[in-house]
Each structure stands twice: as C-alpha cells, then as structure tokens.
Amino acid sequence: MPLSRAAFDQYMVPNYAPAAFVPVRGEASRVWDQEGKEYIDFAGGIAVNSLGHCHPALVGALTAQANKLWHVSNVFTNEPALELAQKLVAATFADKVFFCNSGAEANEAALKLARRAAIERFGEQKHKVLSTLNSFHGRTFFTVTVGGQPKYSDGFGPKPTGIEYFEYNNLEALKALIDDDTACVIIEPIQGEGGVLPADAAFLQGVRELCTQHNAFLIFDEVQTGMGRSGSLFAYQEYGVVPDILTSAKSLGGGFPIGAMLTTADIAKHLVAGTHGTTYGGNPLACAVAGAVLDVINTPETLAGVRAKHAQFLEGIAAINAKYHVFSQVRGLGLLIGAVLTEQYKDRAKDILGLAAQNGLMVLMAGPNVVRFAPSLVITDDEINTGLARFEAAIAQFVA
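The structure corresponding to this sequence follows.
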C-alpha cells in the first residue's frame, strides 16, 4: 500500500505543513493525487515547473543523460555544464557562470562574490550588504538574514553582521543607507514571497546609478522572476537595467534541482580556485535538463505566449472579482501574478488555497494577503480556463 499523508507526520521533520492530498502523477498542467482526483496546477511547484509536468523535451534530455553520466564532481567538468553555461552567456549580459543546486546557494555565492570582490578591490571596510524590507533570498543563514523578513531568521542565535535594509521602491531610503563602504545591493525585480510586488522602472534605474556611483555591485535575485516568467528571459531585460551579478534557479531546471550565478569576467576573477565550491553544482543530469528548458523557453513563441497568457489570467481574475469583490489589486509580470485581498478578507489567503484544492486547483500564497499564480509558461488556454472556473468556484465558497 502507498504511504498516505499521515506518514509525513510520522516520519518527517515538521518544518512543513503540506496539503492533505498527495500528488502522484502530472502531465502538462494537470496533476492527479493518490485517489485519482485531478487538479489544474497554477502553482508550478512555486514557480519551478516552467514547462509543466513531464514535458517531453525534459524527459528526453534526462533519460538520454541518465544513460551516459550522472556525477563526476567539480574535480572534473562535463559537457552538459559547459553547454548550459555557453547558452546562458550567449543569452545574457554575463561572461561567466557558477552552477549550484538551489536559489539559496546561488544567492549565497553572489553575496560571497560581491563581498570578496569589494574587499579585494577597496579594503576590509567595504563589506556592507543592503537589501530590501520584506525580501526573500533563501534559507541559508546568510541569505535568510539578508532577506528582510526577521520572522525567518530570528531564533537561531547571532546573525551575520554588516547587513542593512531599506524600503522596496523607495529610492530615497536607499540613498540614506548606501555609501562607499557598501559592497553590494541585492534586490528582486519583483518581490515574490513578499507579495508579488514589481519594482518601479525608475526605482531600479536609480538603484543601478547609486551602485555605480558608490562602486557597489548590483545583484538581481531572479530565482523566481527568471527563465521567461516575466515575459523576457530574465526580468532585467524587461526593465532595461543590467545588474553586475544575477542569480537563477527554480524555473531554470523545470523541476530538476539547479541554481546558477551569472556575472562578468571582471567580477568573476575574484573567485579563484578554492574560494567557493559545491559538490553537486554543475551536475550533468541537472545541466542536461536545464539546457533543454532553456532551449524551449528562450524562443519568441514561448516568451510571446507568456505575455498573452498573462492577459488571459488578468481578464479571468477581473471577471471573478467583478462578481465577488475579494481582491483590491492584481499585480505582477508575465506568469507571476498576485491577487491582493481586500481589507474585508485580510489574512485569509490560506483559506482560499484550501478551497481551491477542494475544487481541483493548486494555487499559492505570497504572504497571508496575496493569492499567487505561478503556472507553467506553456500552460494551454484550456487549462487556464478550466483552472479559472475552479478558482471561481472556490471564491464563491469563500465569500458564502
């Protein structure tokens, strides 16, 4: 007999509170649980399943590589890693790529590189990290402290120092903090966990100018916004603001764990052999899959489709809201969308998630007041319409 959801409570560390059902199979943007119930997937594994479930190009890449080479460590390099790095460099501002296994590791590497380069260039005093309030950059102790949400970093003892915070979309707040001892500013082009809040274009441009003025590196955390989710391959291209360092994960692997840090050759030279590493980073299986993901996403057809699907989602959510009046605002870019609850329904996003699941729909939260949508970038019109119909059924129950 398959193990049920109760086995989680029996065997697993209780740092998660998973849903009552257990998914067992997926195809495109549909998922089935142990009981055979079908769900439309608007969650995408938290913006990870960029091409849905079991996309043939990804299954083919994984299967082919699985019959060749699984792991060799970074004592050696491997062809899939080299090919993926070449593709990322060709598609972005970057000259160099570092591979790891997750967004947290990509941000850890970015922050370590920024501090290392700043200190080697200007001295030990140039180590300050500036981040935005309500941001999220991962769960390592360094990245969770850099993330401007103390609820995630409190309670684990003394925190890394030299980190300060400013209000998102508030350039004056950054001007008050940044100085010549600032090593880097790290920012999400769209705050994901913080509520699907896009940056103002003028704000990002101002951050870029301040970083240049103070010889501070600008890090864009594109773990959630990258790989086509904004309608451009990376959101920095959507804004026309180029960072010094960029991080990617989530959608990069389409469901297979991988992370990447991208930067220029001039900055990358500060991480010489032995200064940073990872056992699994650049794994042939992960890089083969990510290469296939990139080939599918980085096309005019897929990226244009993201923009069209964004409009379809907004139209559908607006129609639902016209009936039930539960959302004060719908925001985001591409297929990262947040529907903000009105004051009447404050802090009840989790209730909507539960009702959506009852109606055969998987959605997300981005804090207690925002319902988040992060589906496959190639979700079909039919899957969107079916999912929105199920979402409306959930909202009707929610307000009843």
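The chain has a mean pLDDT of 97.
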